[in-house]
Amino acid sequence: MNAVNAIEVNHLTKKFGNKTVVDNISFNVKRGEVFGLLGPNGAGKTTTLRMITTLLKIDSGNVSIFGHDAAKEGRLARSMFGLTGQYASVDEDISARENLMIFSRLNGLSRAASKQRTQELLEEFSLVNSADKPLKDFSGGMRRRLDLAVSLITRPALIFLDEPTTGLDPRTRTQMWDTIRRLVEQGSTIVLTTQYLDEADELADRIAVIDHGKLVKIGTPEELKKQIGGTKLNFTIDQVSQRTLAEKLIVNQLGQSVSCTGPNLSTSLSSISQLAPLLETLQHSQISIGNLTVQEPSLDDVFMNLTVGKN
Amino acid sequence: MEVQTHRGNIVMNTATMAYRNLLKTIHNPDQFMDVIVQPIMFMLMFGYLFGGAISGNVKSYLPTIVPGILIQTMLSAASGSGSQIREDLDSGVFDRFKSLPMAHIAPLAGQLFADILRLVIATITSLTAGYIMGWRPVAGFGWVVVSGLLAIFTGWAISWIFALLGLLAKSASSVQSFSLMIMLTLTFLSNAFIPVSTLSKTMKFIVYMNPITYVITAVRQILATGSWTHEAVLVLIFGIGIVAVFAPLTVWAYNRNN
Ligand SMILES: Nc1ncnc2c1ncn2[C@@H]1O[C@H](COP(=O)(O)OP(=O)(O)OP(=O)(O)O)[C@@H](O)[C@H]1O
Ligand SMILES: [Mg+2]
């Protein structure tokens, strides 16, 4: 268990029929990191995750988990991670407690240890009151919590979460985020997939953007944001007649292009420190402005920028 | 903090999986309805409809159809395992089973062992229905139990075939309709309801090509003679053979992973 990386993925490829669903994807996940796989519907996130977790046969490429080849040492690799799939992977017909007991036993815990761990997890995930009710009466959030609890029975050092918050209401979603952060504090490495940019931004240390089976970009949220240019600056001028002058001043000072519609002007700043001198210049030429907004780029922009036009 | 685990073995994993499936059926007891209703219905319908025509009266027809309907019920109970497995596979929970470090045969074997309960209930229902209609096996209670056990073992062996079908099929409903077809063909083209001597040469040939005929004959012989005939030995070996062939095949199908 001395490998530096929790996961190493090399040239992973999967075809269904003649459609390449995962196309030569490579990345590493460091220990203790939260790694986000971000992509629109059908991008290949689940397929990638299923191959890494040995649920799906790899067409070509390889995966190692804590230094163990997932294909050759499948059983060993499987013992080192917990997985919460995209679709609830708990037993609908039995209770939460029975689910936890059975999965504890299947994970090799003794009967006594299973009982204890079940109780711990029921408490940790606030499921004690509904522990013996059939799952049919569970809300989506409770089901998701149970699903996660089952993945954590062995306190795995590595946890895979496939769209952990899809279908949850905003409050339950925030609770799930808190739970994930708690796991990170305890030292777990986490790989999660999501379609939500804010989720990746909130949780992930690094993000891989996947689209049409290809890895489009990989980096920290900040790096990705920087990649599509700097801060957006928007304002209006009071007298439209001054527009040409204003445009010229901005281009001279920032070296950036300006786009205008009516009295609205927008441009981008490579750093926020350029703002004050620019305002000074405009004032100096007696151009008065209003409705000033400064907008940090969001991951939404990154996402659109990277995946738009290809869908 | 690491949680203490030990490498689960096949027997323990299978036992846990069987326990899971038992829990599921206990939470949904209506799953037993088919194996209870079906033998009673067939026993009443066939007994009172054909009893007179085939054997002169209902009572003398019973030694023919009780074993026939018993084995027919085993077949349909066994086919239930196939659609159950398919349903389970489609539900997402099998992804978790697969991602656990346990023996791959355990989820399948667990299902089939739990389904023995269905086979037992089906056997008791069939034999009791016959008894209520006036069937009195000459061999005595001990041999009735022996024939029941042979039927259950055969049904269990056949459930491995249906498990394979379940794994290979596209959907649970396709398994169900296909299983029904197999069940009807195998039982009606056998000696389940009629004495073979009344059949034409071609039909005789077909009936004797059908393995179910031998199973029914074996059960009848045990009940009629109160002894372990060589037909029964044959059926036992046949059953063991099926498990030996189909258990590895189902594991292979389970592991295909596309
Ligand atoms: N078993 C399969 N057979 C054929 N095609 C498949 C199979 N599984 C997935 N696909 C296809 O592969 C593509 C990627 O699917 P995948 O589930 O990996 O996407 P995803 O990124 O997880 O999407 P979502 O956000 O909707 O969960 C989709 O076009 C899907 O239709
Ligand atoms: Mg998915």
Major β-sheet of chain B, in short?
Answer: none
Please report the distance between the alpha carbons of the first and last residues of chain B.
37 Å
The run of helices and strands of chain B is HHHHHHHHHHH
Order of helices and strands of chain A: EEEHEEHEHHHEHEHEEHEHEEHEH
* Low-confidence blocks of residues of chain B: 1-6
Helix content of chain A: 25-40%
CATH superfamily of the largest domain in chain A: P-loop containing nucleotide triphosphate hydrolases
State the share of residues found in helices of chain B, binned by percent. Answer: over 70%
Low-confidence stretches of chain A are none
Q: What Rg of chain A is obtained from the alpha carbons, in whole angstroms?
A: 25 Å
- Gross CATH architecture of the largest domain in chain A: 3-Layer(aba) Sandwich
What are the salient characteristics of this protein?
heterodimer, A: 311 residues, alpha/beta, Rossmann fold, Alpha-Beta Plaits, 2 domains, six-stranded mixed sheet, four-stranded antiparallel sheet, 11 helices, 14 strands, B: 258 residues, mainly alpha, elongated, disordered N terminus, binds adenosine-5'-triphosphate, binds magnesium ion
Please, could you describe this protein's structure?
The complex is a heterodimer of chains A (311) and B (258). With 311 residues, chain A is of the alpha/beta class. Chain A folds into two domains: 5-225, Rossmann fold, CATH 3.40.50.300; 231-295, Ribosomal protein S10 (Alpha-Beta Plaits, 2-Layer Sandwich), CATH 3.30.70.600. In chain A, 36% of the residues lie in helices and 28% in strands. Chain A has a six-stranded mixed β-sheet with strand order 6-7-8-3-9-10, sandwiched between helices. A four-stranded antiparallel β-sheet of chain A has the order 2-1-4-5. In chain A, α3 (96-106) packs across α4 (111-124). Chain A is elongated, with a radius of gyration of 25 Å. Chain B is mostly helical and 258 residues long. Chain B is built from eleven helices and no strands. Chain B has helices spanning 10-27, 33-55, 58-90, 93-99, 106-114, 116-132, 141-168, 172-188, 201-209, 211-225, 230-255. Chain B has one domain. Helix content of chain B is 78%, strand content 0%. In chain B, α2 runs parallel beside α6, α3 (58-90) packs antiparallel against α8 (172-188) and α3 packs across α10. The longest helix of chain B has 33 residues, at 58-90. The A-B interface holds A 16, 50, 53-57, 75-76, 78-79, 81, 83, 85, 87-94, 98, 102-103, 105-110, 113, 117, 134, 150, 153-155 and B 1-8, 12-13, 16-17, 19-20, 23-24, 27-28, 91-93, 95-102, 106, 257-258. The site of magnesium ion has 4 residues of chain A, from α1. Residues 16, 21, 39, 41-47, 86, 195 of chain A line the site of adenosine-5'-triphosphate.
